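Recap quiz, item 2
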Amino acid sequence: MRGNVSSATTAWLLIAATSAALVTGCSRSPGAGEDPEGASRGTKRIILLTNGADPFWDAMRAGMQDAERDFDLASAKLRTVMDVNDGTPKGQVDRLRQYANQSDIAAVAVSVTDAKNVAIAKAMDECQRSGIKVIAVDSDVDRKTSRRSRFAYLGTDNVVGGEELGKAAAGIRPQGGKYATFVGLKGAANAIERIEGFATGAGNKFSQVENLGDDMDLSTAMKNVKDALDRHPDIDVLVGIWAYNAHAIAEVVKQRGIRDRVTVVVFDAAPKAIGHMADGNIDAMIVQNPYDMGYRGTRLMKALVENDHDTIHEMFPAYDPASHSFSEPGGDTLVTGLRVVHPDSGSPLKADMFAPSTEFLSLADFKKWLASHNLSGS
Amino acid sequence: MKASPDSAGLLGRLARGHSNELGLLLAIVAVAGLTTILSDAYREKPLQNAEEILRQTSLLGVFALGAAIVIISGGIDLSAGSVIAFSGSVCASIILALAPVDESGNAITSDLGVGVFAIAIAATLVVGFLIGTLHAWLITVVGLPPFVATLASLVGLRSLARVYVQEVTAALTTTGKTTQIYVNDEAFSRLGTEWWIPLCIFLALSLAAWLLMSRTVVGRHLYAMGGNEAAARLSGIRTDHLKWLAYCISAMSASVAGILYTAEVGTANPQVQGRGYELNAIAAAVVGGCSLQGGVGLISGTMLGVLFLRVVIDAVAKSVKVGADDYEGIIVGLLVVLAVAFNELRQARRGSRKQFFPGALGLVAIGILSLGAGMLATIMAGRGAGSAVLAGTLVLLGAIALVERRRAGDRDAGARLS
């Protein structure tokens, strides 16, 4: 309990010096916060705060980087960075509060982990009070209670996305059947909306037997698929709601050799999911356009920072620059497109089964689009 | 010339009695000072940053105090994260049950009276007491090692909380089973978000813990039990009762933290709430000077240990800007190892010289430490610096090992001669 004063103090100062060296070293490390070496003093950051870690965000980051180049953010003393949340609402609240206490952040795009969580909305308010421009991408706040916590939302209409996925299942299996849904966090707004949309799109010939969450753990995701198949051997359709669920489902289906009797439909086109579709283990993918979210989101954030009302009005025609408000209830939402991707041969799916605004692509055509943007997934 | 005892003065005596705390305090000032130089944020928004660090320190500190008392008494409590999740779920579910309902039958949790919160908080603390009692029973009566008993709670309580929340929401809402309970009351939210409220709770609990450990017979018995349980029992101390007390304090402090975290995020979500927090609490206690072997540690040290960890974590966040949590683990891990090694060194000075790199194990350890230092330097400053640090560490530790072996050889020769 007691020690020699000089030795204890010296030791702690040594520990402090080590901490200081680490802090200084981390701040100067090449990979720290994607801080380019040439980032000049006075440059402010535009941050994309994800809800968790997933290859899905790589496509959005690619869109942000292209927008950074195309809209010349450097000359406006702005640069883009991505901050990966740990999947928890608290992680997102802590990060947002940290941003509010920083002095070099111009704008933040948040993929809201939990729409109903008031604390996240409040932390977004705190950022706005600190002069940071805030928008929502991919997953929005609760529009009834927290609309003012962000300027606008860019992303998929998840209910429509779910409906398109349901239509794909119905198109492949018109006789209907039993289905199970697999997702990271069951409480996430986009998960709830997609699952609701799936039920509507699939129609009343389908019935849900399981909805399993894996806390964003791939190992648990695979175990969930196995457990669902063990509990309900008569499952006909396996539905992946978040990007990585596709791999978990396809891998288990392959291991168990049940591909001939189950239909696999999934959200997003993670690199592994693309490989599984090429191998014949996935029947349909509903693909969002995170690249477009990143690209247009960056353009919007730059316009907000610079008070460029013309650009804002071009992106959101309902925006009134004089009153800084939207003239229509849904005017603050910019829906980015959806795509249905089907295998190159043998798919019963047809373009007219889906909404006219949804692009209908074969896997080969989709791969060409990915290659044109130097992406491995979307 | 020797200084007389009087000339050393009160400050000198205080410094001798609390050398570890004084060192920690200096370390905190040093790291905060460096961050102020490195980052504009501390200079431009000093008050907001100080408030946020104190708020975060208090939230972690509340249950680190409980962890410290268990460690001092010679035990370990791995369940804090799950107790936080379970307590948060219990608190939110009681609020949900007592809240008025709207026309569709769903609870309105946005404007509740003080009575609702008082009942929910009191019931949650009772749950904490019951969890602590269960741990004490498993350890003292069933005979499970503390590690196993609290590990079972770490795994089981979170799972129980997940099932509990789904059953509660199915019974009390019209939306059916959901995985989380929302509490939207503004006053409740302030418990976790207003910086001074968690701080006052932390200071009050710290004062109570300090009085218990430093000014009561029970506190001295806890130190005695942690130092040597068998000797304490033989000298008439009722060790089973002391363990009951220690584990109840730990579980109840985690329950308080569960209430504060639920208030902070406005949600009880046992899937993710408090995940891994038990290790943060143990790390804070160890950095604050508690020995995992028991019998050593101070409440003031634990308080400063928590503050030091939060200051360093915030310094990383301010300096790294984005993705700071990628580095957080490296730094906290390194600080824990340094703090424990420092305590070992201090103890070694009092007794015989300790050999850190004996035999083949020591040689392999030198290789691992050198590689680790080299990797860290490569991440921070590039490949050239990494190679230099790797080689330098290898030479330095190799030299230490050589000196240690020569001294050990001399001691053996001396022993043979005598």
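The two ends of chain A are 57 Å apart (CA to CA).
Chain A has a mean pLDDT of 88.
End of item.
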